[in-house]
Amino acid sequence: MRALGFAWRSLVRQPARAILGVLGVAAVGALLFDMLLLSQGLLVSMRDLLDRSGWDIRVSAGELPGRGGRVPAATRTAERIITLPSVKSVLIVRLANARIESPSGSPIAATFEGVRGYARPGDRISHPWTVTRGRDAGGASETVIDSAIAKAANLQIGSLITLRASCIGDREALPPAQLRVVGIAEFPFRGTDEDAMAGSLDALKAACGGNVGDEADLLLVTSVSEATATAAAIRDAVPDLYAMTNDEVVGRLQQTGFSYFRQISAVLTTVTITFAVLLITVLLTVSVNQRLGEIAALRALGFSRSRVVADVLSESALIVGSGGLLSLPLGMLLASGLDRILKGMPGIPAELHFFVFEPTALAVHIGLLVATAILAALYPMRIVSSLPIAATLRDEVIG
Amino acid sequence: MPAVASAEAGSILISRQLAAERGLVVGSIVQLATDAAGARAREFRVAGIYEPTPDPARLGAVPREVRMHLPDLLEFTRSPDLPTGSEYISDINVALVDPADAVAFSRDVNARMPGVIARPSSEAAGSAGPFRVLERFHLAIAVVTIVAATVFLLALTIMLVDERRETVGILRLIGLPARRVLVQVLIEGVIVAGAGAVFGLVLAVLSESLINTFFQWRYDTALVFVRITRDVALTSAAIAVPLGASATVIASWALLRRSGLRLARR
Fold first, then answer.
1. Which of A194, A345, B68, B198 is least surrounded by CB atoms within 10 angstroms?
2. Could you say which of A275, A290, A345 has the minimum Cβ distance to residue B130?
3. In this structure, are residues A62 and B58 in contact, taking their beta carbons and an 8 Å threshold?
4. Stretch (H or E) spanning A220
5. Are B141 and B205 within one domain?
6. How large is the C-alpha radius of gyration of chain B?
7. Do B119 and B136 belong to one domain?
């Protein structure tokens, strides 16, 4: 009988402890798998989100878009950037806080995204939202809203909404403005805790009572060819501003805001692995200690030292392997729950995920489990390999 | 940037990180401007260096901050085409004689001053959002860890109890009832679980400063990441001890249902 088959029989002979061992590894393995998904999940998800938006470069006043103030002289800056040969289109994005009057009485707080595009002749400008019903907003009196606002304020396509937008400060007391809803849209960068609406920069100006100024929160740029070279050209053209490719934005986020999750994932991965190694070692050691007489008898019958060592290793492999297999679906289930919890963070885009499946994470997970199985089996393997056959058998008989 | 001292310079406070990065000390004279070109730059004297209030929402971002007197700030940031006195401020913090009046005071201000929004500090603490989410996340991780530990614990106790099958069998044969043996097992379980809980707490206290030191160094912040409070210690003990004792009793239960003769038989 091969070592694996022998180990299988040893485990089946004690089903309760074997099942509990496997379940324990499955729970620990699920946590380990989730931590591996978390370590890169945000970055993978953010890169995907940025790439899907169709814009290659983000130009802003601060190191990270949305931080460090607004881009001054936005129109002149956009006109300067569009003249660069490697630039296909530029979009000025200005954000404002808006309060939409609702029939229920309490106003709905939303982020108003006002945009103005510049493109080369023949090129189309895409907006950072996707219209799902109706059409896109164009004029100074049109807007698109997300489905949550439409539902909360009972708005249809063609409805007129009354809102107060604030382009300068948070708490300006401005006169209300009216805009017509021409479409329902999805906003990929909308936070889970916020509602969004959008329109042209002129519509935003109308909503803010003209109190806007020529400033932008962000300029989105699509390049004709290589984004890195285009970003360098933009930096040369407007040296006061930051021009970052999607990869650079992700790299910057990796160093700042997202690094906490990588650190916590590294700490928990280490703790989880240590925990698993310790517990499986104890399980195997106790199991081996209970079977010392049996192992000594097998040695006396002709089983080689390497063979009994292989039996222990196979037992460890079976427990960790079965638990590891179970840990994958368990881990995915747990990841979706943890993802829901973390997406409760303010300002996190609804389409961003903290736990993203990647083949690399699976490979690392398998590698770590293999290492766990080997490490956990080292001490019990040492016990069986150095077992004195005659003395153990004598002790068993006398005992 | 450091500059030549001037008697007219206003005083400012700068964050520790900014001071370290720019080599500034108390008494340094710096020039500040509202745009990158340095137009309308003004001189200020560094009156002090402060540790910024830790903000979880800005974890990882180096806080290069300056604090100045409000009149200086308004004068400094006002557009040249705006007359003095036309500036606006974003917030006013109010300290009440009786903090318990915060809700009533806010309601009163909102009713009397349209266009101004007053909120008690407890409601305005939006930055606590990430804290609460992280707390829920850590709680979920803790629950999974407890489940895994419980399963392993059960497996271990089953093995340990099995190892003592003969001893239990002899105790039963000499007349000890199953209930008496079970009480003994329970006391043993409580002692072992209690010792384990104490060991775990000592380990947690030792690792507390290690984890805080590492993350405070990594993010250059005074934020405390791990704090073993009395409540946390008591909660851990309240979970660990009953869990350990229960695992021992559950594992022993099946064994004690067998007859003493069967247990003592080799």
1. B198
2. A345
3. no
4. strand A218-223
5. yes
6. 32
7. no
Q: What is the pLDDT of residues B159-198, one digit of tens each?
A: 777 777 778 888 888 888 888 888 888 888 889 889 989 9
Residue A17 contacts residue B158 (beta carbons within 8 Å):
yes
Is the domain of B104 the same as that of B182?
Answer: no
**Residue A257: its pLDDT value, please?**
60
Decide if A338 and B57 are in contact by the 8 Å CB cutoff.
no
Most confident of A91-100, A119-128, B216-225: A91-100
Pick from B60, B130, B163: CB nearest A256: B60
Residues B136, B106 share a domain:
no
Within 13 Å, how many C-alpha atoms sit on residue B101's CB side? 8
Domain encompassing residue B202? 128-264
Chain B, nearest residue to A169 by Cα: B90
Is residue A297 within a helix (H) or strand (E), and if so which, with residue range? helix A292-301
Number of domains making up chain B:
3
Nearest by CB to B144, from A31, A169, A282: name it: A31
Angstrom CA distances, A289 to A276, A284, A398, B157, stand at 20, 8, 17, 15
Q: Which residues of chain B approach chain A closer than 8 Å at the C-beta? A: 35-37, 57, 59-61, 88, 90, 114-117, 126, 129-130, 132-133, 136-137, 140-141, 144-145, 147-149, 151-152, 154-156, 158-160, 162-163, 211, 215, 218-219
How does DSSP assign A222-284, residue by residue? Answer: EESS-HHHHHHHHHHHSTTSEEEEHHHHHHHHHHTTTHHHHHHHHHHHHHHHHHHHHHHHHHH
Tracing tokens 């990588």 back to the chain, one arrives at A262
Nearest CA in chain B to A172: B115
Average pLDDT over residues A45-72: 81
Positive or negative, the CA dihedral A276, A282, A286, A291 is: positive
Mutate to test the interface with A, among B109, B151, B162, B206 (most CBs of A within 10 A): B151
The arrangement of strands across the sheet holding B10-15 comes to B29-32, B42-50, B10-15, B66-68
Predicted model pTM:
0.73
pLDDT at residue B2, as a whole number? 44
Q: Do A346 and B160 touch (CB under 8 A)?
A: no
pLDDT, one tens digit per residue, over B2-45 is 444 455 678 999 999 899 989 999 999 999 887 767 777 888 99
Same domain, B134 and B249: yes
A248: closest CA of chain B, how far (Å): 16
Q: Are residues B14 and B82 in the same domain?
A: yes
CB A261 within 8 A of CB A356: no
**Torsion sign across C-alpha atoms A211, A217, A223, A229:** positive
pLDDT at B254: 72
Average pLDDT over residues A227-243: 90
B240 in the same domain as B169:
yes
Query: Which of A39-48, A260-269, A356-365, B60-69: highest mean pLDDT?
Result: A356-365
The structure tokens listed for A127 are 């907006």
Residues B147 and B184 in one domain: yes
Q: CB of A171 within 8 Å of any CB in chain B?
A: yes
Q: Of A31, A255, A344, which has the smallest distance from its Cβ to B148's Cβ?
A: A31
Stretch 85-144 of chain A: residues touching chain B, C-beta under 8 Å? none
